[in-house]
Design goal:
The structure is a single chain. By secondary structure, this protein is of the alpha/beta class. The chain has one domain: Aldolase class I (TIM Barrel, Alpha-Beta Barrel), CATH 3.20.20.70. Helix content is about 45%, strand content about 15%. It has 13 helices and ten strands. About 50% of the residues are buried. The model has no long low-confidence stretch (mean pLDDT about 100). Bound molecules: 2-O-methyl-1,6-di-O-phosphono-D-mannitol.
């Protein structure tokens, strides 16, 4: 493991005013997204959609430091035969790859999940490195109920995240570690704080145990928000303050960057939360974004699966990328949304 290589990649991923585009929807998830706009999901239509995003030069050059790809996409070529990874690299964005095999039912714990994918991971990472991947992503799914997540669920998921992270670093790939506490539920914002804090504490214990070099990692967490079905919703300032309070207590200062997932928040709320945290400032780590839905919902809708809408969709993507780039600097304002 060359620590300096990992550190340089991690720093580049959270360069000022830049963040990550999460475009690693598995085939089932992208089909659901395409169904919502009445578009058919085929290898070519998925390629066309993603090529359109990666060719949005303004966004890719200015606000997107890297893109998380799905296995199909890292191997795909654009309509003109250029590898999609070449297009993003030319625009200054690093290719990344989702390497987990998805969340499966955790035996003995009904309703809880454990993310799989460690078998054969060393070999897969070596191939992805050759295909140009500079970073990887593994997502653990943690549902909140009165009794969940259990200690067993936290333990199994954070252990897997740490084993994955160590294997990534061995392959000179920066691991994004993503312990996602799911927003769905009627729980309070305080309960989200409690669970997120337990997950992050367990995660950093496991990363230390597996000798993971924290300066060569990136954390991709949820924000501390109220459960979506709770009648009482924490406002933007409360979310920002509680998230930072939790992270100051649980995330070591050696971590270079935290890139949030949007988790089902609306586009603008995800931007407002990130901006509010950066406005509070005085942070030991960079705070940016790694949004999937909150970056793609607008361009997906504008595109509608039709080639004649590409320019409009690219403008929608460039706008969201720019808004989030400003939020990563604490320079966003609602009036800029137009
Ligand atoms: C883009 O969605 C990612 C892949 O999901 P599936 O494996 O279920 O298809 C997802 O992991 C994503 O990278 C993060 O959760 C962030 O996405 P959001 O939409 O929550 O910002």
């Amino acid at each position: 493991m060359r620590k300096q290589v990992l550190e340089e990649i991690a720093q580049a991923m959270v360069a000022d005013g830049q963040g990550i585009l999460a475009a690693d929807e598995s085939t089932g998830t992208i089909k659901k997204r395409f169904d919502s706009i009445n578009a058919t999901s085929t290898e070519d239509s998925r390629r066309d959609y993603r090529e359109m995003l990666f060719r949005t030069t303004e966004a890719m050059q200015n606000n997107i430091s890297g893109v998380i790809l799905y296995d199909e996409t890292i191997r795909q070529k654009a309509a003109d035969g250029t590898p999609l990874t070449e297009i993003m690299v030319a625009a200054g964005a690093l290719p990344g790859i989702k390497v987990d095999a998805g969340a499966k039912d955790l035996a003995g714990h009904p309703g809880e999940m454990v993310t799989e994918g460690l078998d054969g991971l060393r070999e897969r990472l070596s191939e992805y490195h050759q295909l140009g991947a500079k970073f990887a992503k593994w997502r653990a799914v943690l549902n909140i109920t009165d009794n969940a997540p259990s200690a067993a669920c936290l333990n199994a998921n954070t252990h897997a995240l740490a084993r994955y992270a160590a294997l990534c670093q061995e392959a000179e790939i920066v691991p994004i570690v993503e312990p996602e506490v799911i927003m769905d539920g009627s729980h309070s914002v305080e309960r989200c704080y409690e669970v997120t804090s337990a997950a992050l504490t367990a995660l950093y214990e496991q990363l230390a145990m597996q000798n993971v070099h924290l300066e060569g990692t990136i954390l991709k967490p949820n924000m501390i928000v109220s459960g979506t079905q709770n009648a009482v919703q924490a406002d933007v300032q409360q979310v920002a303050e509680m998230t930072l309070d939790c992270f100051h207590k649980c995330v070591p200062q050696a971590v270079p960057g935290i890139v949030f997932l949007s988790g089902g928040q609306s586009d603008e709320l995800a931007t407002a939360h990130l901006d509010a945290m950066n406005k509070i400032g005085n942070l030991p780590w960079k705070l940016s974004f790694s949004y999937g839905r909150a970056l793609q919902a607008a361009p997906l809708k504008a595109w509608g699966g039709k080639a004649e809408n590409v320019a409009e969709a690219q403008a929608a993507f460039a706008h969201r990328a720019k808004m989030n780039g400003l939020a990563a600097l604490g320079q966003w304002d609602a009036s800029l949304e137009g």
